[in-house]
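User: Here's a chain of 214 residues. Predict its fold as tokens.
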Amino acid sequence: MDKPYLREMFNPSLENPVFIQGLPGFGNVGRIAAHLLTKFCEAKPFAELYSPSFPDYVAISSKGITHLPKYEFYAAPMEKNNLIIMTGETQPSFDDVLAHYQVCGDIVDFAEKLGCHFIVTMGGVPITEDKAQVYVAATSSKLATEFMEKGAVIYSKGRIVGGTGLTLALAKERRLDGVCLLGTTTGFKADRGAGFLVFKFLMKALGKEIKEGL
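Assistant: Prediction complete.
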């Protein structure tokens, strides 16, 4: 494989969907939040992205079957907001800047093709104290303020590494609106609590309250 390959199983044909991305990273927060979202919305997988920019290993299923690293896209028709949810089990190497730009550019290309005008990326932010919080960064001060009023804290004077930040920044360059939601986590181990917090906050922002203990 010498170039990215997008495998589409069907066209979801959703009107003005919100694009939501959750990838591995600090505490696996983004990926956990995306997984919860696909389960809660009963989202259906409709496309897969393969790329030579992904790491050179394969994943093995519980039955011993191999498959290439990939990003998966799910469609979720909803009453208030139609959703396109993207997640995966890997990211390009943090040392390979060009690979990150290429993959994130491909993601934004596909989001635009699907008619998405609003982008949400989700991830984790490491902290030293155990304090549950959702931070927000946005493509405009207006959006940052709107999400702050919903309960998030403005993420200022920092960096968002990997696809979580880059996808949003590239979307902004194409005049798309969006936000990045970061759940606080104290370590690199999978943090389901932080993932649930981000998922719950996002659903509230989209107009759907989530009860504890989902």
